[in-house]
Amino acid sequence: MQAQAYPVIEDTARTLVLGLGNTLLQDEGVGVHVIETLVRLAPDTPRVDYMDGGTLSFTLAGPIGEAAALIVVDTAQLDAAPGTVRVFEGADMDDFVGNGRKTSVHEVSLRDLLAISSLEGRLPARRALVGIQPGVMDWGNTPSPAVAAAIPRACQAVQGLLERWKP
């Protein structure tokens, strides 16, 4: 019997930066707008995959489980002024998402996707949520002025995490 040859995966330390949101509901789409900005700023960042996750679906469980590190950018109920940006890492992210404090109109919750990855033993060891307090969740394809002004700060937060997490 001949031995099975398996492909060698050389680049296993990839970080997934996942932007979530519905761009038809003003501030709800801010995660996607941040991803678009990051791609324009640094389209070829080594070992980083930028993904527009839209309004979530179970299909995102695969890419999340395949990543060594995960950064999610999305709206979050921070009980703060619109446009406030906060970063939750590791257990702090798990607690925040697990307590239902993440605002969402998504088909599947981020908590569900993280639970799937955890149950499969594939939850990225390094993970963070860059949360942005929304102000306007109404029809429209551009964020409110306060949330639009937060996009560069959210990009800086993502870039800071990527720099700190370099292998």
From TrEMBL:
One Pfam entry name: HycI
Q: Does the keyword Hydrolase apply?
A: yes
Report keywords, A-Z.
Answer: Aspartyl protease, Hydrolase, Protease
Listed transmembrane segments:
none
Biological processes per GO annotation: protein processing
Example GO molecular function term?
enzyme activator activity
SUPFAM superfamilies under this entry? Answer: HybD-like
Q: Which NCBIfam families match?
A: hydrog_prot
Family, per entry: Belongs to the peptidase A31 family.
Q: Which protein is depicted?
A: Peptidase M52, hydrogen uptake protein
Q: Which organism is it from?
A: Thioalkalivibrio sulfidiphilus (strain HL-EbGR7)
